[in-house]
Every structure is written in structure tokens, then in C-alpha cells.
Specification:
9-stranded mixed beta sheet, alpha/beta, 9 strands, binds magnesium ion, single chain, binds nicotinamide-adenine-dinucleotide
Length: about 325
């Protein structure tokens, strides 16, 4: 697998070009500020009533309404919430694209599932940092970068690879290393990861473990510490040293018990269901469901949020976290 670094990318690809970063949220503020400090001519595109408008200006950036920013730009990076991108594309972006422009994404959902179908004379690529926006920003200011993925969807003029690498360099990505992927691979693995492992899998594992202990008569406070609080310690160890690094640091008792009991929790049945989740992502079933859910005004998401808010682990957790002065509250 090839990794691209600073020497493989040439920022002059962006010379005499204007980049519009649409959205100034988690990713938007990081991309816009990093590009700006890398010497790229950047403007920010927002709604007139956006709370971020003043923030972007205070950060030294020039802001226009989304349609106007698109009109002024050669390269348009779409960093709006994925569920809103299609509507904004139809009303503000599409009418203002010119032949030779490039449209850029940080996640492949809307292109891969054909929610956005740009004209053939528009270059389309992705640069997706493998980290949250605040990290993309902070690490850049420290002189380093967050690794990125890039992918090419449409390349009408034959310059998109160079442009994508230049963009990745502008946000600091090539300082760490950039890997080429496809819109398909990025979209499907991203959805699978958040559903089966990161957001869905891990929360159900924590909550079920908590529930088993509480139902067996143990104090919810103790169950909370065991099943949720200590997750961070374990994940930090894996983040730094892989699974082996974690097992090296815990006791031999934990190592033996973990290695023997883990496969009883996550067994062949779990694997089959994970494969089904992946199949539903690949065949578009999940995308269809999520697109329709948004069109219906998100009734299921709201119901699920209410259900999650009432979970006992959340009640006890919010009390316990008040005891921990070092945990930052939003
Ligand atoms: P976000 O919710 O943090 O920010 C969205 C921004 O869009 C906000 O500034 C908001 O004011 C603006 N906005 C919302 N609706 C708008 C509209 N109708 N018109 C104009 N502006 C509007 O979003 P984010 O997390 O930065 O995600 C942006 C993209 O980056 C998504 O494609 C996401 O998948 C991708 N991504 C995010 C992360 C992450 O860590 N958050 C990581 C990799 C990729
Ligand atoms: Mg993701």
C-alpha cells in the first residue's frame, strides 16, 4: 500500500485557485484555517443566519453565503452535515458550478449512494481526515498532521490526483501520510465501523454488561465504573499499543479471562449478524432507510434518543461524572 507524504504533493496545484469551504463545524473550521495558514486562498460558505459566521470572521476568514462562495470558488469542499448536503447541492452548489471546478467531500455517502450526481465536467474527489476536526486543527498548529484518505470519483481534466494531494497537504495530512481509497470503500467501511464496532457495538456491549451486573444485585455505581468508566483506560492502551499492548499492561488474570471469555461474548452468531449489517450497507438498504428517515422528519431517531436518555446507565453515569472534576462538561 502506498503512503503519500509532503514530497509527493505540490501546493502550487492550488495556486491561483480559490477554495470554498462550505460549513464551519468540526471539519470545516479545521480545513479552512489550515488551508489559510498553508497559504491557500480560502473563503468560507455559510447560511446568512449561521452562528458560525462571526466565528469564521473572527478567525480571519472571509465568509459568503453558500451559493456566493461556490460561485467565487474553483474548488468547493462540502463540509455540511451529510443529511443536508443533497438539498444544499441542488439549491446553492449545482447552479454555481463551472466546467473545470472541483467538488470535494470528506465522506463518500452522498456520491456513493447517488444522492449527489455532479455533471461530468466537474472533478470530484474526497479528502477525509481520519480524526475529528479539533484534532485536525490542533495537530496542524503543532507542526504535524492527521492521516487522511483520498479518493477520486471523476477526473475530467486529468489533474484531480494532484489536486487532491495538494488539498491533503494544505490541511496537514501529508505530514502524517495519506492513503488512496475509493468512495465505495470509504463509505462502506465508515458506516460498518460506526454501526457494528465503534458506536453501536461498543455501547451495547457496555450497556449489556452493566445490566447483567445490576440485575445480579450489584450496585449500579460499581457496575458503571467496571463497564463504562474503565473502557477509556483499556481503549487508550489499545490505541497506543494495539491489543497486545493492552494485554501486556493488564494483569495476567485479566489477560487469561479476557482471552477465554471474549470469544464467548462475540461468537459465530455475532459474526453472522455483523456480516448482515455489512450486507445491508453494501446493498443500499441502510442508506435508503436513513434517507427516508430524514425525509420523514426523523421519527425513529427521536424515539431512539428518548429511549437512550432513560437508560439506567445514563442516570447513574451523570451523577457519577459530577464527582469527577477532571471530566470536561459541554
Ligand atoms: P458539523 O455538523 O460539525 O458542521 C456542519 C456545518 O455546516 C456547520 O457549520 C453548520 O452551521 C453548517 N450548515 C448546516 N446546515 C447548513 C446549510 N443548510 N447551509 C450551509 N451551512 C450549513 O459537521 P462535520 O462533523 O464537520 O461534518 C462535515 C463532513 O465531514 C461530513 O461529510 C462528515 O461525514 C465529514 N467528516 C466528519 C468527521 C468528524 O470528525 N466530525 C470526520 C471525517 C469526516
Ligand atoms: Mg466516520
Amino acid at each position: 500500500m502506498k503512503l503519500y507524504y509532503d514530497n509527493d504533493a505540490d501546493l502550487s496545484e492550488l495556486e491561483n485557485k480559490t477554495v470554498a469551504v462550505l460549513g464551519y463545524g468540526s471539519q470545516g473550521h479545521a480545513h479552512a484555517r489550515n488551508l489559510h495558514e498553508s497559504g491557500v486562498s480560502v473563503i468560507v460558505g455559510l447560511r446568512r443566519d449561521s452562528a458560525s459566521w462571526m466565528k469564521a470572521e473572527a478567525d480571519g476568514l472571509t465568509v459568503f453565503e453558500t451559493a456566493e462562495a461556490t460561485k467565487k470558488a474553483d474548488v468547493v469542499m462540502v463540509l455540511l452535515p451529510d443529511e443536508k448536503q443533497k438539498d444544499v447541492y441542488e439549491t446553492d452548489i449545482k447552479p454555481n458550478l463551472r466546467s473545470g471546478n472541483a467538488l470535494v467531500f470528506a465522506h463518500g455517502f452522498n456520491i456513493h449512494f447517488s444522492q449527489i450526481v455532479p455533471p461530468e465536467n466537474i472533478g470530484v474527489f474526497m479528502v477525509a481526515p481520519k480524526g475529528p476536526g479539533h484534532l485536525v486543527r490542533r495537530v496542524y498548529t503543532e507542526g504535524a498532521g492527521v492521516p487522511c484518505l483520498f479518493a477520486i470519483h471523476q477526473d475530467p481534466d486529468g489533474n484531480i490526483r494532484d489536486l487532491a494531494l495538494a488539498y491533503a497537504k494544505g490541511i496537514g495530512g501529508t505530514r502524517a501520510g495519506v492513503i488512496e481509497t475509493t468512495f465505495e470503500e470509504e463509505t462502506e467501511t465508515d458506516l460498518f465501523g460506526e454501526q457494528a464496532v465503534l458506536c453501536g457495538g461498543v455501547t451495547e456491549l457496555i450497556n449489556t454488561g452493566f445490566d447483567v451486573l445490576v440485575k445480579a444485585g450489584y450496585k449500579p455505581e460499581i457496575a458503571y465504573f467496571e463497564c463504562l468508566h474503565e473502557m477509556k483506560l483499556i481503549v487508550d492502551l489499545m490505541y497506543e499499543g494495539g491489543i497486545a499492548g493492552m494485554y501486556y499492561s493488564v494483569s495476567d488474570t485479566a489477560e487469561y479471562g479476557g482471552m477465554t471469555s471474549g470469544p464467548k461474548v462475540i461468537d459465530a452468531g455475532t459474526r453472522k449478524r455483523m456480516e448482515q449489517i455489512l450486507a445491508d450497507i453494501q446493498n443500499g438498504q441502510f442508506a435508503r432507510e436513513w434517507i427516508l428517515e430524514n425525509r420523514a422528519g426523523r421519527p425513529s431517531l427521536e424515539a431512539l434518543r428518548r429511549k437512550h436518555d432513560r437508560l439506567p446507565i445514563e442516570m447513574i453515569g451523570s451523577e457519577l461524572r459530577d464527582m469527577m472534576s477532571w471530566i470536561k462538561k459541554e
